[in-house]
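Aim 2 progress update. The chain analyzed this quarter is reproduced below.
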Amino acid sequence: MSFHFNWPRFSDQFHADATQMLNAALNKGSKPRIIADKIEVVELSMGTQPPELEIRDIGELTTDQFRGIFRLSYAGDAHIVLSTKVQANPLNHKKADMDVMGSSRGILAAHQPLIVPMLLRLSNFRLNAYVVLVVSKQKGITLVFKTDPLQNVDVNSTFDSITVIQKFIQKEIEGQLREMFREDLPAIIHRLSQRWTAGKTKVEAPYLHKNPTTLPRDKVYTPSTDAVSRAPSVVVHPHSAAGAATGSPVSPGAG
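Predicted structure tokens:
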């Protein structure tokens, strides 16, 4: 059994929230030495093709919460474009980085750093993994990858014409994405879903913020002494309670 999604056109607010969270995730911790500036998301598209979820096990199913194990697969047309600055001078890298980047033949090298802007386009994502999915009306969506989901991603950059740098960037980006799927993406999905459920879930409490209605002091009714003296007094005798319990009429008596 599998799910079929109606993949919507995501709102501008969704893209703004997702971009903000992705920026925070991409810039936390240490970055490769080749990256010389912060990484910014300049374009984010969720594509037109939804992921596929195949049910493997259902652990809980109530009106308020669902928990199950799924096989998730994705081969859609989503893409993301990143902007940053890189250190393009091979001699300014440590020995390990130079070994990965290979020979510097054909590249003009100097001992001074060479910082240049770079655009990265990530596309052609292929994902396949087992996930634990929990959907709660109160707590939102929790998604945990049980296995490494990244099967493929195409990385195109400003340096595609330089093979050694292109391969180095591809390897670094794949490593960053694997870590992000494992550590950051579940938290991003959870926070986004909480914002969505917060807008959909409304607790009805019509009198929560209303003050009790009070009359102005000059409008408060105070019965006069004559009215109080003329009011009939009502005395309920002990046997009257029994009569009321049995449904018999109880008549007021004068004191």
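The CA atoms of residues 90 and 107 lie 8 Å apart. Residues 98-108, 201-216, 219-255 have pLDDT under 50 and may be disordered. These observations will guide the mutagenesis experiments scheduled for the next reporting period.
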